[in-house]
Amino acid sequence: MKNRTQSSANNKIMFKPEYATILIIIFILGLSAIYKPELFTKAVQRRELFQSIMLWLPLIVTVAMGMMMVITTGCIDVSVGSIVGATGMFVGFLFKFYNAPFWVGVLAAIVVGMMAGALNGLFISYFRVNFLVVTLATMNIWRGLAFVITDGVEIGASYMPEQMSLLVLKGPIPGIGIPWIIWIALFFVIITVFFMKYSHFGREVYAVGSNENAAKLRGINVKKVRFVVFTLTGMFSGIAGLLYGARFGFFSPGDTGNGMELIVIASTVIGGVSIMGGRGSIIGVVLGCLLLGMVQTLIPSLGFSSFYNTAIYGLIIIIALIIDRGIKIRQSREVVAKKGVMGE
Amino acid sequence: MKVTEPILKTKGMTKAFSGVIVLRNVDFNIYPGEIHALIGENGAGKSTLVKILDGALSPTYGEIFLEGQKIKIPNPLVARKLGISLMHQEPQVFPDLDVTENIFAGHTRDNGDLFINWREKRERARELLDLLNLNIDEKASLKGMSIANQQMVEILCALSTNAKVIIMDEPTAVLTLAEVKKLFSIIEKLKEQGKAIVFISHRLDEVKIIASRITVLRDGNKVCERMVENTTKDLMVQLMIGRTLNEQITKEEATVGETLLEVKNLTLPGQFKNVSIKVNRGEIVTIAGLVGAGQTEVACSIFGITPPESGKIFIKGKEEKINNPMEAIRKGLAMVPEDRLQTGLLLPLSVKHNMTLPSLGKISKLTWINFKQENSLVEAYIKRLSIILRNTNQAIAEISGGNQQKIVLSKWLMTQPEIYILDKPTRGIDVGAKAEVYNLINTLAKEGKGVLMISSELEEIVHLSDRAYVMSEGIITAVFERKELSEERIMKAASITKKKVVQSS
Amino acid sequence: MLKSSNNISSNKDIGSNYGLLLRDFFSSLEITYFILMLIVLTILLITTPNYRNVLYIIKAISRNVEYGLVACMMTIIIIAAMIDLSVAGVMTLSATITGLLYHNAGIPMLGAIVLGLMGGLMLGMINGALIAYLKIPAIIVTIGTLFFYRGVSKIFIGDHSLGHFPDWFNRVDRIYPIKIGNVNIPVTIIGLLVVVIIIFFILKFTSTGRKIYAIGTNETAAKFSGINVKRLKFLLFSLSGLVAGAAGILCMSRLLVVRHDMALGGELDIITIVVLGGTSILGGKGNIIGTLWGWLIVVFVRSGLSVAQIPIEQQLFVIGTLLLLALAIPNIISILREKYLNIKIQKSLKKL
Hints:
- The complex is a heterotrimer.
- Chain A has helices at 17-35, 38-41, 43-72, 80-98, 102-126, 131-150, 162-169, 180-198, 200-210, 212-217, 222-248, 260-270, 282-301, 308-339.
- Chain A is mostly helical.
- By secondary structure, chain C is mainly α.
- Chain C has a two-stranded antiparallel sheet with strand order 1-2.
- In chain C, strand 1 and strand 2 (183-185) form a beta hairpin.
- The two termini of chain C are 24 Å apart.
- Residues 1-15 of chain C have low confidence and may be disordered.
- Chains in contact: A-B, A-C, B-C.
- At the A-B interface, helix 9, helix 10 and helix 14 of A face helix 2 and strand 12 of B.
């Protein structure tokens, strides 16, 4: 057994961003409890609050899995919200005008989502157009399409196949009231974790994000990696579009997925995933989703108008960025100090 | 070990970029169990040749044979699969991944497994580390790892792909003496295992030590292939540049005056500590030392890029605080950085724009640029330094290294500073331009400027310096006045180390 | 590889510098965009009968001066290899501040405008501080501030439309100081042209312009060359805030009210304008005249669609597609050209 003189820098318990997120969540819950205790003391309200958060969470988390991969490879996809909306509307359209069964809707959501993501990937990787320009353009393209599909008309609950509402009302395990939608999101989280850690492609994603040049030299097809990542994100967004309809009971061209990109990007940033490299953790991202989902639900529950949502999200992003920067600066100081210099 | 057939060879290898031929009909032979050095000046074609072998570039004409079979190498992935591994000058690693992940990044599929078995990978990483007697934890993060260790990780990556041919491009450029020793012992080990090693280096001493065969390239042509034991260093140089190097570096006498620049106890934690340097008018002062000893960091600190945490800077006797390069320039400092392509010049911009960048205040009134003045200034300096150009709006990328360096120099001459900080001013330029640079440095000293030069070329230091400070691992280990200077003394002082040299058993 | 010629530049006269600019423009990639623009303009002119009427064109243009203004500033920011996605938010919040100060705080309109502009400036300074001094990537900072600023507007004025401003303030775009033939040119368009001219000179003729191109080309090298990168970045973002603030107030004047959804999605239009004009989003390259063309295209497309009574979301669809294609097609062409050239070289060398 040899002595390890250059031991892992991770031996010291490093300040993990996930801890900070947990603390902030607890902090906010605490503040809310003080401000309006009934939310937590009265069982009905508590249950409502919990349900509200837990039904919203799967939507964000699903898309966040894709966004995390995108940001890891050094890009951002601002079109996710619009893809959610467009696929949602398309699925709703199929339900209403073609009486499509549930499984067709699911298939449609996946396929259309993938196509939308692939479009992004195509233009970004193979036509060499900047990712911001592409996703900004497609963001508006898909949102426009969402309106075109039904001429701006919502698709209401009466047209939904019954499985849609089942998704949020019933769960696979009788007795334990955890609805399907949560299991589905959980499933996605688990396969993403597994995928990123144990699949070859997942490692390539991290490699590309860490040092694109080195990845190229190692023979990793960076273009393909980005293309696939965007396609997967499109797929996740498509599925989220379907889930949106399940959660809210209707598809609306203006509302479905509106503003979602902000929340998802914020969650990923909170999760420590950085566009400059730095891979964050999936748990961190999920916690970020929890934080933001919680904030969105708490705002109306606490009696504030929903007008506060946008500002608070923006503020959270900014604060998360500042904290993330602070952590990175501190980390690099530690690294430099560790290098040491003679005479010490 | 006598082997007659090369394991990898090129026949008639030719490469052209946009009509310009950079490699012409080169037959390069790599034998297993041998360390083969590839030498030549900058621009001779060494990088191009190895990039073709790595699959990063495609040959315009020519064939490659692996173990007698003709092959094509369309991309680095294929090269890896064929057992050819290229290690670049700066280690290309993934800072966010740990050692094991780094070793296997990009070729995790080799096993044919559907999923990655990390435990197995970690064990294999551990095996490789032990094979080379390295004391690195396979779970260690690459962040903040020393460059030498990063290089080790790259070597391990090559090993993990069962590379038969390992090409190293200037591996010792960024290593300390102790680390070079360690690297050489590992290269020996690789040789014992029957790997074929290609070693590109400018340091002919090292080539003499480690290599058994050399191939010399000049202007894209193969000049010869010889055994090292039959080749002296002088012969190597002669083959490389096509003429004998009999120019001595001369120093011209200059009157020494007041102290222009003095720094006392400059400290930046993690980079350097208690550095004190003095540069007088008319002096050429050198900071010697191995790469990574902290000289560049000191220079950047004085110039305001990364201001020191403690210590004082005095310019012409007055204490100054320099917070950014703009202030440094205003106070009469100029710095020619080490890497002219990344930090010395802005590549897409024209020669003219580059040259006048720090002097914009001089050629403009209330920010309005006086084009006439700009043109005449630029022309004047081009003449003064004999820079060879088509026109001043030419792109920097089209110009030779020597001329590029001259452009950087004239850029700073234009700011008319009192103190010049030159970081390896003759790095990577041909002999002719080098002589001109030495001339210029002498002239500057004669004109009463102060020159602070960082160099790792002992000849330069010994011949040019009025005073030489030697740094090692962040501190100044010795100061020599001109009459005390000698190459051995400098080398010795540069090799002083407090870190325990990691012993190989 | 030494060059045998010993020629130094043959620039003898000052005029050649200006002449060089013209030559740069015509031989660069920008010319492709210029031609593209002319094509689009011609198509629109032909297909829409209203376009024959110059008055109509002027009217259409004056409805979009605000975006044009912000796009001009954005051009500078993009040349410096950065981006400011928060502009629409700054527009809205500055206008909101102005409106609220006038209505709720009883401050006279002129004063409210000045304070609103200062507000815009400060919002830009916040961006600048985070980006220049804390070194957080601009793209994500400005996404955050976009939502934060717009969100704050929402908090302040909720769903209401804040209006009833003094007469002299309303419809500033109806002030026609100049008349060409029998066409009235509103002051806003003149203002925009003035801004374009000013920025043109700043970029090409001043040291600041050189510095902007420098940091957009290679920030580190720029720093080593003595450019105070932090300060310049901070300045640019602060200025961006100021310009966006002015644009927002201008918008308020034209629409007579300010709402929380003013200029919603405006960043798309603005970036489209800049990018269509040939400025590379990666930085280091670009010019303001191109932005002018890009603006005209977007304006004409938008107004053409409005006339055809196509709803806003679908207009955005068209703009998005336009942006995508306008950028992809030149790239596709050059990729194909590279492949073709490579094949040619292979063939000719095989013959050797």
